[in-house]
What we know:
The chain is mainly alpha-helical and 412 residues long. Helix content is 63%, strand content 0%. It has 2 domains: 55-214, no CATH class; 270-399, no CATH class.
Amino acid sequence: MKKLRDFLDSKVEPLFHKGGKYQRFYPLYEMVDTIAFTPATVTKGLCHVRDGLDQKRMMIAVVIALVFPLAVGLYNIGLQANLATAEAGLLLSGWRIDVLAGMGIEFAKNTVLANFLYGLLYFIPIFLVTVAAGGLCEVIIAFMRRHEVTEGFLVTSFLIPMIMPPTVPLWQVALATVFGVVIGKEIFGGVGFNFLNPALTARAFIFFAYPAEMSGDAIWVAADGITKATPLGIAALNGVHGAGGLIEQGYTLQNAFVGFIPGSIGEVSTLACLLGAFMLIALGLGSWRVMFSVFIGMLLMASAFNGLQSFSDNLMYEMSPLWHFVLGGYAFGLVYMATDPVSSAMTEVGKYIYGILIGILVVLIRVVNPAYPEGMMLAILFMNVLAPVIDHYVMESNIKKRMRGYGRKRIS
């Protein structure tokens, strides 16, 4: 490995630096070199704190934490398809079934391996389109600005496919990814300068630009000719305990907590998201203050609506905090989206305010607007916009307190 490093430094890298034959392609070379090796540019001198965590290692750690909900989500795609086809008395066909058959796997047997591989065959095309569209944007913008290609898109390239339904059209994924990367991040200066989460920006674009393909009953089960609503969609129409509600249709808190329900690829399992949360908190990469505050805000708002359910005909009033916690993209957003260190609040007090308001907003959107039963995406995006304002007033308050304390010391 050292010989390869020495060869790149002495023979290859000079060709891409200023004055070299391929200097215009330096961002592309630097991107590959940084992914393969530790960045060559590091802080030096006695005034700096030495730390083994750099941007690349941080991004890789977050991707590893995403493996938990992704694994459950891939298995759930196959599980939901198997359950739906068995209920309808149908047999699936298509190139994915043919691929599994070529591997000697019979999908209809509903095994863990068959379901997981079936889900993987849906995820891989979405992921590859995301990487191609987003990566191309990153490289083009790096050339235009003549700076390095950062590792920031690594996490975004996983987040975007995970918050999409399995049957989303690939061309829409490409458009949404370009919008999320360019409008959600690069237009503001790139990694570290964006105030919106790029993955959620992509999800918002595709939802509002193509609502017919991103809502309703037809997109959540990866089986042709079969439609099935998400649990939140069912609750918005029929409630939790009433006729045709969640309980009557066979949904339980346990299944929803584990992730065996229809939904976006990576958002279905609250259990897997919590495992990712423990990892991120232990590594110091995820803010427990934001996670805790989002939960408290949701708990307070959902409990308030529960207390008012006798005064309204809205069936969503009866949804308990536990149901809000395990359904939709709540847990995934709490762990992986709300805690984005760039687009969330920076101050310690601000993190509590930011998180509580997200928790309140997600319940408000789900309950007050049953036509849009999810809510977590919009709640986080709204608070991304307000996070700088929250930090500003928190810092102003701290400055005033210090000035008052300084004045009292001068008088004494």
